[in-house]
Write a structure and sequence with these properties.
The protein is α+β, with helices and mostly antiparallel strands and about 120 residues long. About 45% of the residues lie in helices and about 20% in strands. It has a single domain (about 1-115), classed as 2-Layer Sandwich (Nucleotidyltransferase, domain 5), CATH 3.30.420. It is globular.
Length: about 120
């Protein structure tokens, strides 16, 4: 178990460092996926501030979602995050998938955020 966690942390650091080199001053859209929920936030690393957040635990989404762990939940979180980011004046970000594969819920969230108007 410890080995898997350390591999995940190394992979997420590697992904984040590669993206930072290519980010060109854009903000970071970071995603965290648990077994029951999905969370996303837009972060300004230079200021150390979070500008927009969304998760499957939000009151707006909790009543409409059957489960916080499905593809539908990830799509709704992506749409909600993109609308909140647009309200905060953010239109360009870079997608930090962490150590997760770009597949399933992570991909669904990213595509919904793109449809909502974020470009990455």
């Amino acid at each position: 178990m410890q080995r898997l966690k350390s591999q995940f942390l190394r992979r997420s650091r590697r992904v984040r460092m590669k993206l930072r080199k290519k980010s060109r001053g854009r903000l970071r859209l970071s995603v965290f996926r648990s077994s029951q929920h999905i969370y996303a936030q837009v972060i300004d690393d230079t200021k150390g501030a979070t500008l927009a957040t969304a998760s499957s635990l939000d009151k707006e989404l909790r009543s409409t979602l059957k489960s916080g762990a499905g593809l539908d939940a990830a799509r709704e979180v992506g749409k909600l995050l993109s609308s909140r980011a647009k309200a905060a004046g953010v239109s360009e970000v870079y997608f930090d998938r962490g150590g997760y594969l770009y597949h399933g819920r992570i991909k669904a969230l990213a595509e919904a955020a793109r449809e909502g108007g974020l470009s990455f």
